[in-house]
TrEMBL record:
<dbReference type="InterPro" id="IPR000119">
    <property type="entry name" value="Hist_DNA-bd"/>
</dbReference>
<dbReference type="Pfam" id="PF00216">
    <property type="entry name" value="Bac_DNA_binding"/>
</dbReference>
<dbReference type="GO" id="GO:0003677">
    <property type="term" value="F:DNA binding"/>
</dbReference>
<dbReference type="GO" id="GO:0030527">
    <property type="term" value="F:structural constituent of chromatin"/>
</dbReference>
<protein>
    <recommendedName>
        <fullName>Major basic nuclear protein</fullName>
    </recommendedName>
</protein>
<dbReference type="InterPro" id="IPR010992">
    <property type="entry name" value="IHF-like_DNA-bd_dom_sf"/>
</dbReference>
Length: 110
């Protein structure tokens, strides 16, 4: 079986992600508002989203993504088999993990 090569799309080659200023500028031209107002709007959206994720564990940007938290349980220290070898593993405490998922509407666009 031949080794698998990583797939690269044309969108990922050499292009950079949109900055907050560029996003505020694009929103300002689309909504006929000032760039500073759009920047404040983005700040408020980030604050509201962070608050909702902390409070309820879930926040959805309609048509874009859903941000969720989940609890990872603690692991005990000991010895485990990994790749055919016995390995010592340290204990890890329980922690909360934050993940973002695309909504169905965004998945169907590609």
């Amino acid at each position: 079986m031949a080794p698998m090569k990583a797939m690269k799309t044309t969108a990922m080659k050499g292009t950079k992600a949109m900055t907050k200023g560029a996003l505020a500028d694009a929103l300002a031209t689309a909504a006929a508002l000032k760039k500073s107002e759009c920047s404040k709007l983005l700040d408020a959206l980030a604050d509201i989203g962070a608050g909702e994720v902390v409070k309820t564990g879930k926040f959805t940007l309609p048509g874009l993504c859903m941000i969720k938290t989940r609890q990872k349980k603690a692991t005990k220290a000991g010895k485990r088999m990994m790749f055919g070898k016995e390995v010592k593993v340290k204990a890890k405490p329980a922690k909360t993990v934050v993940k973002a998922f695309p909504v169905a509407a965004l998945k169907h666009q590609f």
